[in-house]
Design goal:
single chain; alpha+beta; Aminopeptidase; 158 residues; globular; seven-stranded mixed β-sheet
Length: 158
């Protein structure tokens, strides 16, 4: 990822409510940083995902889409890539947290087979809100739920 893309990810993280030290993440061997655009012809970073591979789990630390680019398949493309990465690295589980009030994101994750595993009281700040932990068995034979709800034309790159 080039410096301009890293700066764009840092700006998008702030815009979407995440605190991410992009520079530090690029030096962590367990971290994966993905960006997405509607097409390769677009220079702007329109969505990003940050994951950590820890033991046999892949943790989604942040996934954000620019407000002007939502509902265009970018987050869906990133989730597909995250699931693929989890399988490539033999992750047993993919884990993420989502705000309880974020119904669109919860529906998207559930479309991929993510299921609620626990409630995390007062997990989020500004505003304070509960978080819902969602998990997905990265190996489809483990739970039979993992699936991709459709392919998209967006570009996802690391």
């Amino acid at each position: 990822m080039n410096p301009a893309e890293l700066e764009a990810v840092a700006e998008l993280a702030v815009l979407t409510g995440f605190v991410v030290d992009v520079g530090a993440e690029t030096h962590r061997p367990w971290a994966r940083l993905w960006v997405a655009r509607r097409t390769a012809a677009i220079d702007a970073v329109e969505a990003f995902a940050l994951t950590w591979l820890a033991a046999d789990e892949l943790h989604v630390i942040a996934l954000g889409t620019h407000p002007d680019c939502r509902r265009q398949g970018l987050a869906r493309s990133l989730i597909e890539r995250i699931i693929e990465d989890g399988r490539e690295h033999s992750a047993r589980l993919i884990i993420l947290e989502v705000r309880e009030s974020n119904a669109p994101a919860r529906r998207l994750y559930e479309a991929f087979g993510f299921a609620e595993s626990r409630l995390r009281r007062r997990y989020y700040q500004d505003p304070e809100e509960d978080g819902i932990e969602l998990t997905l068995a990265a190996n489809p034979s483990e739970n039979g739920r993992s699936r991709s709800p459709g392919g998209l034309d967006s570009e996802v790159s690391a």
